[in-house]
Amino acid sequence: MPDNTLRARDEAFWRTFADRYEVQPGPINLENGYFGRMSRTVVEEYQRNIELINRSNSVYVRQRFEQGESQKISSQVAGLIGVAAESVALTRNATDGLQALIRNYNRLQPGDQVLFSDLEYDTVKGAMRWLARNRGVEVIEIEHPHPASFDSLLNTYREAFTRYPRLKLMALTHVTHRTGLVMPVQAIAAAAREHGIDVILDGAHALGQFEFDLNELGIDFAAYNLHKWIGAPLTLGFIFIAPERLADIDPDMGEMHFPVTDIRARTPYSTPNIPALLTLPLVIEEHHAMGGSTAKGTRLNYLRNLWVKPARELSGIEVMTPDDPRLYCGITSMRFVAHADQQPMVERLLRDYNLFTVVRSGAACGPCIRITPGLTTTAADMMLLTTALTELR
């Protein structure tokens, strides 16, 4: 077995990392998909940076941060996904980045078509509908069959590409926030390219859960979060634009603080959370020291499978995410089949078993309960979840 697979099962090893995080007494958090914890040392560094910027104010920012430190930090962020520094611009989060990419994409003409599926983030759906109102394009909305498979997901897109010949742009989510389904991005992007369709990738949940190569995936436009699985403070994310495609994204609302050849012109110019940005070098160092996305993802998948495998055998429980290793990560959703409304069962999990979870809705397959372990989650927590599902079904 690979070293990461062995380590994923080593509770003592992961306890050494879990002990680096402050955890408030209370419910067991199985909703780590919202945002991740900062380690104790990152919190301390963040506090020091808040105090530094508060003391020095614009003197430090003008003389040091804007004169080179910000670009060094961008370069380190670009290193997380193995791309050139000039192809990355920092944002507050993936949502801000996706909205900027969508609204500034300049290759659309009235009558063109844009596409998204039921599994996209609601803000992305809203941005694509904004294009219809403001650019005169037609929005195509598709639904994925449930249960999903690699072939069914790919075929749904292939059928849409053939049926709608005026498609020019599509949104695609790498890891869906509703069910945790990992989309076969490389195959979908290749099919889109055959039809002349550009893809804007929502990587909000992907970064930090597994390794990927954007060039291999065939992705030219993407947005990511740093506050989910990388361990950064809130308010940090970034966009990626392949350098040869920069001209296809306009400067944001005529942004002129940076040259038109600078990717930073593609996002709104504002005063960022400088203390948080100054904390990123330590965040990235700790991410790599922990073993990076491969080690984190292997651990999260192990915890996921501890509850999913027994849950598959329970009548009255439906696990929404397939077990094809190409299509799942640590995030997985389920539902109690006897209940149309899953919220009362979320409340039972919390009240009777001290397990904090969240309902996700909006997918064509119906509402579900999202289960997301984190780096402080233990195998015992997963066993408790299994007990709860067994008794509540």
Structure in words:
- With 393 residues, the chain is α/β, with parallel strands linked by helices.
- The chain folds into two domains: 3-30 and 292-392, Alpha-Beta Complex (Aspartate Aminotransferase, domain 1), CATH 3.90.1150.10; 48-286, Type I PLP-dependent aspartate aminotransferase-like (Major domain) (Aspartate Aminotransferase, domain 2, 3-Layer(aba) Sandwich).
- The chain has helices spanning 3-8, 11-18, 40-56, 58-80, 94-104, 122-135, 150-163, 185-194, 214-217, 274-289, 292-312, 343-353, 379-392; strands at residues 28-29, 88-91, 113-117, 138-142, 167-173, 198-202, 221-225, 237-241, 317-319, 332-336, 355-356, 358-360, 368-371.
- The protein has a seven-stranded mixed beta sheet with strand order 2-8-7-6-5-3-4, with helices on both faces.
- α12 crosses α13.
- The radius of gyration is 21 Å and the shape is globular.
- The model has no long low-confidence stretch (mean pLDDT 96).
CATH superfamily of the largest domain: Type I PLP-dependent aspartate aminotransferase-like (Major domain)
Please tally the β strands and state the result.
13
Count structural domains: 2
Q: Give the rounded overall mean pLDDT.
A: 96
Strand content: 5-15%
Question: First CA to last CA: what distance?
Answer: 35 Å
Shape: globular
Number of helical stretches of at least 4 residues = 13
What is the rounded Rg?
A: 21 Å
